[in-house]
What we know:
By secondary structure, chain A is mainly α. Chain A has helices at residues 20-55, 57-64, 69-95, 98-128, 147-183, 193-217.
Amino acid sequence: MAIQAHESNEPEVYFQYEDIDQQQDTYLIGMWAFLAQELLFFGAIFFIYFLYRINYLHDFAQLSGHLNWQLGGLNTAILLASSYFVARAVHRGQTGEMKKQVNWLWATVACAVGFLVIKFFEYKDKIGSGLFPNEHFAQHYHYEANPEVARLFYSLYFVMTGLHGIHVLVGIIIFVVLIRLIKKRSSLITDYIPTELCGLYWHFVDLVWIFLYPLFYLIPAP
Amino acid sequence: MSAAAEQETVQEKNYLNADHTLRSWLTTTDHKRIAILYLIGVTFFFILGGLSAALIRLELTSPTGWMLSNEMFNKTFSAHGIFMVFFFMIPAIPAVLGNFLLPLMIGARDLAFPRLNLVSWYLYAVGGTLVLIAMMMGGVDAGWTFYTPLSSIYSETQISLTLVGIFLNGFSSIVTGVNFIATIHKMRAPGMTWFRLPLFVWAHYATSLIMILGTPVVAMALLLVVLERSLGVGIYSPELGGDPVLFQHLFWFYSHPAVYIMILPAMGVQSELIACFSKRKIFGYHFVAFSSLAIAVLGFLVWGHHMFISSQSVYLSVIFSLLSFLVAIPSAVKTFNWSVSLYKGSISFQTPMIYALSFIGLFVIGGITGMFLASIRTDIHLTGTYFIVAHFHYVMVGGTVTAFMGGLHFWWPKISGRLYSEFWGRISALLVFVGFNLTFFPQFILGVLGMPRRYHMYGIAPEWLFYNVLSTAGSTVLGLGFFLPMIYLTHSYFKGRKSTQNPWNAKGLEWEKAASPPITVNFTEKILVTEDAYNYDAISDAAQALRTMEKRGQLAVVDDEDAWWDENSEDKS
Ligand code: HEM
Ligand SMILES: [Cu+2]
């Protein structure tokens, strides 16, 4: 779709703000406040994770060995790349190169989708081996670790990566909507700030995974 | 002719009559209209909560339980707690008065994110609806605290649906917090420096911090219960080596700070009322402002005082106990400062002030009994008894609801543009004070005597009947005290006398610069702030000068000061 030039490049200032600077600063503060609450949301379950890991160190290390660290590593690389792409998109937004901005955003979306596809196969593998942590957990269980702790471990694994996965999914939706709005030259998107805000969110999602990966896949034997 | 009088003759556009359709209300992004939507919501849940309280009190008028089954009783007090805490108390002051007043007080045309503000109301409404549906499908029996493993394993009631409703409501509270923080940081009018902010705004800033830092933790805690019930993942399950007490930690990590979500905005209202009705600057403005932040921070460090008899280690308990004593200090700072502010003030006992003075008395009792509970030794005897019930009702009803009523009456002329009947206002304020004490003071005694909370039979100690009957009798008075305002405020909304712009001669942008009711964009002029908050001294200096002149015979006798105010204050400013 061809992107047509717009008559005015002046960003719209909403009635409650005095000027564009105030509006942009306010958006950023709002986003940081939102991320603060995200941090505490994930913080709560990381706290639970550490508690159980300290209690069941041996079992956790043993179970960690059965997760596919190669796939996890691949996903880490993918998310890191996507964070770079979104940063490029913000940059292009600042310089006003809309076409390049949109391309970088598509690259980000592609990474996010790739991440979820890989995650899907990982889940499929685990659930296929009867490791979904409900009452039918591990009927053909053959690990060294205590089966009850294993269910606890997989509970944490599925809940934490699952919530993270939902955040990735939300990220995809946000980016696709953003791209459409940019292309439509919507009055909602008159400068780079919306991209910057979505980018901040995306960096956060990435950061959560940066912690999840070693905490689940790379637990060293004690 | 003054601006206010003009407004009475010319029918002006304001936020209320800007549009009349239901649609215009349900799609509004005007912070004042959203405040009204919230007012309707919280009143609705207050009524439901009140009715379930009435059931509880009725049931307790007999030692043997005469009306409700065990199960019904559990469901009734659970419903009461859930409605009152999550759907009335937490949103009451911030989402109604805060929503309405923050932009007006700081000289802004709206909150930072008006659409998000509407989203927060819808989250609240949908969350509330889900909980109502859960109640109609049989309700829940695990109390408002949802302790595991009762809530996660044993209860067979509508826990999951209720928790999803509460989760959404929590999200609404987070959204409000984000909005307030951005607004207070960035939307202040020129000249409105941080230390010129009304204390109401400071209190809401601290509250918003707790909302965004505490709520997500309880959201996670509750979500895990839902997942445990629905999918079978077992994070709290003792069978798997999980720890059910973990839930209590996470729950109270939020819910202790949440009691400050409930009380801090009330303290903000309190500062405004005391200042206006004694026509004095709040003594020690900076201390009062920073004590709000201190409460917000310390409030996160004391949750373990709810768990002295859980498996928590003794050393931990000692630390939590000491920290709990600390958190009382900033509350006391505020109380002292309000009291001192009254000194030499020209106090008038209008309805809002009666509520404000009740607040001081009741909150002190609530806070001091908190000290008893923060001491491990006494708490081990008192925990789980009616003493706890009395303690938290003194702070939550005696504190928060009293301040909410005071604030609602104080700003009613601004919100509705109408005056209510001062006579009925004072009567109900007194009824609330008397009824409240009659209801809850006997519960302290019951608690010391050992009556457990959440039981509906006390056949082992029929002598407790007397205090229980006293309490039930008091609750009818209290109920009347809350019922009357619903009548006369509604009446005043449609039929009341029109209010002037500033009927109380109060300081503050919302009174001095905005019409009653305000126009949709709040102000007709650009706001520039040039003085500190509560600059009542400027007025009282003038009054003082007048008195001196009068003494010297330079002036005709002014014998009725009120009349003097009425005549002279309008054309000021
Ligand atoms: C002055 C500082 C305060 C202190 C030191 C304090 C202390 C305590 C303690 C130690 C408990 C636990 C008792 C137990 O379960 O054994 C408690 C319970 C409670 N407090 Fe406070 N409190 C204070 C202020 C407040 C305020 C301001 C509110 C609300 C606006 C409040 C609301 C509650 C509630 C709701 C409970 C009971 C929760 C439940 O178990 O259902 N408290 N308080
Ligand atoms: Cu507490």
